[in-house]
Amino acid sequence: MTESSIRPPVAARRPHTRSHHGDVFEDSYEWLRAKDDAEVVAHLEAENAYTDSRTAHLAPLREQLFEEVRSRVLETDLSVPVRRGAWWFYGRTEEGAHYGIQCRTAATGDDWTPPVLEPGVPVPGEEVLLDGNVEAEGHEFFSLGAFDASDDGTRLLWSVDLEGSELYTVHVRDLVSGERLPDVIPSTGQAFFTPDGESIVYTTRDEAWRPDTLWLHRLGTPVQDDVRLFHEPDERFWMGAGITRSRRYLVIGLGSKVTSEEWLLDLADPKAEPRVVWPRRDGVEYSVDHAVVDGEDRLLILHNEDALDFELVSVPAAEPLGARRVLLPHSPERRIIDVDCFRDFATVEYRREGLVRAGLMDLASGAVDEIGFDEPLFDAYFAGNPEWHSPFLRMTFTSFVTPPQVLDLEVATGTKHLRKQTPVLGGYDPQEYAQRRVWATADDGAQVPISLVWKRSFGEPGDGVRPVHLYGYGSYEHSIDPGFSMMRLSMLDRGVVFAVAHVRGGGEMGRHWYEQGKELSKRNTFTDFIACARHLVDAGITTPARLVAEGGSAGGLLMGAVANLAPDLFAGILAGVPFVDALTSILDPSLPLTVVEWDEWGDPLHDAEVYAYMKTYTPYENIRDDVRYPRILAMTSLNDTRVLYVEPAKWVAALRHAGAQDVMMKCEMSAGHGGVSGRYNAWRERAFELAWMLDVLGLAGD
Predict the structure, then answer these.
(1) Long-range contacts: 228-233, Cβ < 8 Å, 24+?
(2) Digit-coded pLDDT (tens) for 76-121
(3) pTM (2 decimals)?
(4) Tell me, what's the pLDDT at 109?
(5) pLDDT of residue 593
(6) CA angle 306, 308, 313 (to 5 degrees)
(7) What Rg do the C-alpha atoms of the chain give, in angstroms?
(8) H/E element holding 262?
(9) Residue 196 CA to chain centroid, in angstroms?
(10) What pLDDT score was predicted for residue 671?
């Protein structure tokens, strides 16, 4: 049987109508939503069988790609230790093992220089805290959620998800005796110890999968006796919690897409009750951290009240509504992202000219000393700094061509100490690769940045037609920052140019960039991506026949939209866990995450204008029978709670009914939104996707 003679599954069309605001839509594939129905499961399995058959010829290439990434990765490796209290905590991996192993070793006195750990060399005094491979035994899926040691180092908590549902079960171990404690807390989100190590703070979700309640569990007591610390009834708001680095306050954060509110519980006062910092006001977002300035307890509040790109102020901790001292004034040239307080200074991360910048800020004056890097495109951020006071600050630096570097910034001198760079086996030379940014002109004149990465030996982009892999996202103010990828090297080494379209709806160019790509301006996201693709064609970098597009989740909606708007511009489209039936989902408040999404997309259930606007772009409703679609591959997971499997299942069925000739879907039957678990499984899944893209680009034989 030839590949062309293999017939795809045909989903039955069954009467089902959806009616809102006087509009009636015939949704013939809605029956596929019945996840536990044997006929639905059989259809998904038939889709997988069809995809397996259609891609069988790519099996050798998939194996080659898998072995390529495996040959580059140092499979037995260790992370740079992070000091917390009297211990150095680190993780390690072992060749052939899917999951990481979490360990610690004792620290000595005031020595803050992390011990140098060598792969394969025993670590003196190593204590294995948790072996993910042992925890995962007997399970098809495993995800480690919370992982926290008590401040005194005597207890450990961790949580696991064995289904991909993002509901985690908390376990506790006594690190002195090595015994597991009887405390087991099911169906949690966040979880962490109180500073005294005697209790666990954790969140739970409502029926719509929204974290809405904060609990306190005292070790050794029944879970049913846990104390409810806080509950958020508004379905638009998610809850999160954490303890300030000073260990003074428990911070309870509540946030919708456009509004936030934070409450503080003073851990120094056993009789204290949570108190609000600033009462919520629609459209005002803020976050809080605790600082001590000249002996006074202060709160640093990062907010957007009359400050589109945010402003940082300092207020008395005892009177948060009192006089504000502006530390970082609002500037349209700088989108302030994050502020973290330490004993003697704060770290600041902000976005300028499309890139993240990082610096140290004086707590009293707000003066910032920016940390410089010498690459044109890069990402740099602080991570792994749990201590209130330390002579070093841990940072990560990377770019499209530079493997991640772990740096310790010496606070007193500004000196950067390289502690580790992710090794790339096989002789990787970053000078053989290049990166730069070009700009496309959108339909309304906006200048849209495009990041390009390529291997120099194939020539400059534009010196001849090249195969191009164009990636996009464009929602939730999420930015696609420069980052290194082991698997991407397999594409670059075959002559593919990797491109990122930094379209509106993302946050690369500031808050206005996000505002112009959401709600009733959402179509800008799609037309920006098309403008980027056309720029690459018009600049002579590629042609439609050598251009493949990729996006996942909300980026999958982007893929579905551009497939309808400009099907002749792409040879292939890879849509990962794609949000392609967005209108159906956003209309149903009983579905997970729907109500909280109304601030991002609009509320089509109650607003006829929003309904009509969304219906002009949602991929499922706008499938066309008058065009030739490019090759399409949709990737999804049965247990995904964020974008349900039914969305791509319906989309693929409708595309085929409209005459699309080469459409496939692969559904993982035991995974969630993030796909399969285990690093080797993840490499194989990505190898599957890359092999398909290389086939689309005519490079499967290379």
Answers:
(1) 229/201, 229/265, 229/274, 230/263, 230/274
(2) 999 999 999 999 999 999 999 999 999 999 998 889 999 999 998 9
(3) 0.94
(4) 84
(5) 75
(6) 60
(7) 26
(8) strand 260-266
(9) 32
(10) 58
- Which residue do the tokens 């001292």 mark? 325
Cα–Cα distance measured from residue 496 to residue 455, given in angstroms and rounded to the nearest whole number: 8
In a 3-state reduction of DSSP, which class is residue 608? helix
- Does 479 qualify as catalytic in the annotation? no
The 10s digit of each residue's pLDDT in 622-639 is 999 999 999 999 999 998
**Residues of 338-351 as b/e, b for ≥16 C-beta within 10 angstroms?**
bbbbbeebbbbbbb
Count CB atoms within 10 A of the CB of residue 634: 28
pLDDT tier for residue 3 given thresholds of 50, 70 and 90: low
Cβ burial, residue 138 (10 Å; 0-12/13-18/19+): exposed
Strand partners, 271: none
Per residue, what are the HEC states of 284-327?
Answer: CCEEEEEEEECCEEEEEEEECCCCCCCEEEEEECCCCCCCCEEE
Query: Residue 409 in contact with residue 267, Cβ under 8 Å?
Result: no
Between 268-277, 505-514, 567-576, the lowest mean confidence (pLDDT) is in: 268-277
* Given the residues 289, 340, 640, 695, the one annotated as active site: 640
Q: Active-site residue among 43, 303, 502, 673?
A: 673
- The vertex-249 CA angle with 245 and 250, nearest 5°, equals 100
- Distance (Å, whole) CA 297 – CA 315: 9
CA distances from 486 to 25, 400, 403, 574, 631 (A): 45, 10, 9, 19, 26
Spell out where 485-630 has E strands.
Answer: 497-501, 547-552, 572-576
Give the Cα separation of 508 and 335 in Å (integer): 9
Residue 2 has pLDDT above 70, yes or no: no
Catalytic residue among 143, 553, 585, 637: 553
**Any idea how long the chain is?**
702
Is 553 assigned a catalytic role?
A: yes
φ/ψ of residue 686, rounded to 5: -70, -35
User: Any idea which residue has 């948790």 for tokens?
Assistant: 130
| pLDDT (tens digit per residue) in 535-581 | 999 999 999 999 999 999 999 999 999 999 999 999 999 999 999 99
Q: How many CB atoms lie within 10 A of CB 220?
A: 10
Helix pair 646-657, 38-54: axis angle to 10 deg: 60
- Helices 554-565 and 523-538 cross at an angle (nearest 10°) of 60
Give the three-class secondary structure for 328.
strand
For tokens 């061509």, name the residue. 401
DSSP secondary structure, 359-392, as one string = EEE-TTT--EEEPP---SS-EEEE-----SS-SE
At what angle are helices 679-696 and 59-72 packed, to 10 degrees?
A: 130
Distance CA 534, CA 530 (A): 6
Query: Which pair of tokens denotes residue 647?
Result: 């969305």
The reply to whether 673 belongs to the active site is yes
CA distance 454 to 353: 22
Question: Is the pLDDT assigned to residue 672 strictly greater than 80?
Answer: no
State residue 326 phi and psi, 5-degree precision: -75, 120
Pairing of strands 497-501, 447-455: antiparallel
**Alpha carbon distance 299, 88 (integer Å):** 30
Helix or strand run (H / E) with residue 60: helix 59-72
How far apart are alpha carbons 108 and 99 in whole angstroms? 29
32 token code pair: 């596929």
CB atoms within 10 A of CB 477: 20
